[in-house]
Amino acid sequence: MIEFVDVYKVYKGGVVALQGASFTVPSGTLACLLGPNGAGKTTTMKLIMGFLRPSSGTVKVWGLEPWIYEKEVRSRIGFLPERPIYPSNVRVYTFLKHLANLRRVPVSDVHRVSKLVGIEHLLDREIKTLSRGYVQRVGIAQALLGDPELLLLDEPTANLDPRARREILELVKVLHRDLGVTIIISSHIIPELQEVARYAIFIDRGKVLDHGSLEELARKYVANAIYVIESSRPRDLAIELLKKDYVRGIYVHDDRVEVHVDMDRVNDLEEYIKELAGRGMVKSYSFRTAYLGEIYEKIVGSSHG
Amino acid sequence: MVREVLTHASYVMDQLLRGFVVVVCLLAAFQSFATIASLPYVENLKMGSVITFIGMLAYVTFQMTSLVEELGRGEAMLYLAHGLTKRCYLASWILILCVVPIVVFVLSIVVPIAIIAPSLLNNVEIPTLIAYTVLHLATFSSILFLLALSKRRGLVVALGMAMTFLLPIALSLATYYFTSLAPILGIVCPYYYYLTYETSSKLRICPSPPSIGLASLVLTMILIYACFVKVKKLDV
Hey, which of A98, A111, A245, A290 would disulfide with A218, CB 3.0 to 4.6 Å? Predict the structure, then answer.
């Protein structure tokens, strides 16, 4: 869906934002673009949108170069820019209606997206009267106009309080689950990406350090895999699991048991879980993505080492 | 493309630049009275329209900063993300800050004359006067657009004000002391050059206003082309 091949972006004055960035993002995934401030995340987003032309290399979105086919590409993308200033004296409805007109989607779509993000009761308010959390919801609403196939969210939780941050992340999860839209979130806050992302692109000082699904990256960089098992008898289950030599750690949270296991023994654990399920000790289980922070540390560590 | 330009231009005028529309209309009303008061003497109309014209230039300069600010703070990106190309975006601002003032100014001269003394419209001096004002406004705003795309608010205001208030003085001084410089200045202010040429015999040795007007037209076209090239490369 998105393909960067050896992309360089050098701004006027010689500032190098991207250096030979190569990565792909498959369709249907919820990916994160992770890196510190100044890593090149926003530049990457702008290149995907066709706002910028790569200095060299190729950027393709659905096989089209966004810089050249800007209208075709942008009409299929919803974009939430990093900290945009919204027109303050304009009513939410007027603003969204104008964007719907530009996108050539019916005005009824304004009501649909407003309902989706929970701002339908604020449509008559001027944007300047809204809290930051609601302004960010307006931003997500505008990005959802016209049912985009790809949603780019550049630092969607920046400058939000913890509650608003949680609400926005929940909203992102719901959108991905209910609409099946491909989402790319850029952020430097690892814990919040841990909650939503299933695919990651690690970027630092303009270089893409690695990319892939969290499972693939975990297998590559992290020693332990994590399984989350739901059980009606979590303590008994934990005792059973502790008997296995490949289990590296067990944490019980209410009716869930988190099991850390050697990466090369995940098949053994899965078989054992099935056996325990047959004995009525397991309701359900899932392979949990590895800790992003751990993967990040390993990748950054290996690139600096 | 035309649809996008008109849609965005009407939104900007309705929502963001209401004050601009009001001031342009007030200037037009003032000009209409000035036109009526100066009739049937075309010479009076030529001089009388300078005041409104200067007001129009100053206000276009002031509003040009809205474009600079919109580009600087990332608001433009919100519109560009919805199918409005950078060139359409620029075209909509040109429509607002160049075409609308020109049309309003021209109408504020033509309409009162057409009502009170329609025969005067056959006088060649009226269309000439209109042609130079249109050309002057177009050159003026295309220079400011090019500066606005560099997102330098201070430069836009400084140069806009200098071209509005200092250029007529500089042209008068050049006419008397550095006559050969006057046509060069005239290229960026063809209306002022036309008025000065009409009233000062010193400029008789210089190129005529139509020649300067033609140079001004070429310059405007180059500047507008440069604006469209620049906006495409602009990092919004």
Answer: A290
pLDDT value at position A216?
A: 80
Distance in Å from the first CA to the final CA of chain B: 20
**B-chain residues within 8 Å CB-CB of A51?**
77, 80, 235-236
Q: Cβ contact (<8 Å) for B11 and A86?
A: no
* pTM score of the predicted model: 0.82
Q: How far is A218 from chain B (nearest CA, A)?
A: 35
Q: Is the pLDDT of residue B16 over 70?
A: no
Answer whether residue A303 is part of any domain. no
The CB density around residue A85, as the number of other CB atoms within 10 Å, is 16
A171-191 pLDDT, tens per residue?
888 878 887 889 999 988 787
Q: How far does A283 lie from chain B, in Å, by closest CA?
A: 45
A205: containing domain: 2-213
CATH number of the domain that A92 lies in? Answer: 3.40.50.300
Tell me if chain A has a CB within 8 Å of the CB of B1. Answer: no
Closest Cβ–Cβ partner in B16, B78, B82 for A84? B78
Spell out which residues of chain A touch residue B77, defining contact as CB-CB under 8 Å. 51, 79, 81, 84
DSSP result, A105-174 = --THHHHHHHHHHT-GGGTTSBGGGS-HHHHHHHHHHHHHTT--SEEEEESTTTT--HHHHHHHHHHHHH
